[in-house]
Amino acid sequence: MVAELKYWSKKRLSWEETKNLILEYRKGSIEARDKVIKYNLWVVGAVNLRYGNTEDGFQQGILGLMEALEKYDTNSKTQFSTYAYYWVQQSIYRYINKSAYKASYNLIDLYKKMLKYEGSQNDFFKENNLNKKTISALKRMSSKGEYELEREADMEDEESLQEISRFILKDYVDDLLKRYCTPDEEKLLRAIFFTAHGESQLARELNCTRQWINAEKHRILSKIRGAVSK
Question: Are the C-beta atoms of 89 and 43 separated by less than 8 Å?
């Protein structure tokens, strides 16, 4: 078991820093690649904690992080950390599935198709012309229960999962505000949503009316929604 998440760094690369490093890496800079990985190991640690917090899981997560680095679109509106979270999770989960079921990835995919099949298991076996060995493996997997590992993982450390959710959300919100708002618009939204000020108190501080603040809030949010949906 991994005793401590000492690879978690308080520092976070900005969207622009990450983008530039990825572009440098794609020109051949291994140093740029290593820097992106270093400052996103917290994503690996977060997902690995959810799935048992093992050394093997952590290594698999790094492979997922590298896969995300290869696939990430630098023109994307999604933060790299959010994008990487998905690939890290997929890498660790595939590893757990393979270890738990002692099966190939193809068999796992077949099992997932069986779960979605609307008919009976026997109908699924006949329709896919499966041999006895495959049918036996699928039945063992079914009796074990696909979601057992998920439930156990969710109970590992709920507080840490909530913390990671906040990290991901903060990255996403910061990115939206920086990319689509003017400095004044960003300042207003942060005052409305991220401080304890009520709209009445904020109106007094800004020497304006509550109606103006409310109208501006809706205008800016509509602006962001329009930009994101394009």
Answer: no
Report residue 30 as tokens: 């291994």
Report the number of secondary-structure helices (H) and strands (E) in the chain: 13, 0
Which residue spans within 56-183 are E strands per DSSP? Answer: none
Side-chain half-sphere CA neighbours of 95 within 13 A: 21
Of 69, 78, 85, 81, the C-alpha closest to 29 is 69
Of the chain, the end-to-end C-alpha distance in Å amounts to 44
- CA dist 208 and 201 (Å) reads 10
Tens digit of each residue's pLDDT (9 = 90 or more) over 17-30: 999 999 999 999 98
Pair 21, 36: CB distance under 8 Å: yes
Closest CA to 42 of 69, 65, 15: 65
In this structure, are residues 20 and 47 in contact, taking their beta carbons and an 8 Å threshold? Answer: no
What tens digit of pLDDT does each residue of 117-153 get?
888 888 888 888 887 777 877 787 676 554 443 333 3
Q: Nearest CA to 161 among 101, 85, 224, 212?
A: 85
* pLDDT computed for residue 163 by the predictor: 46
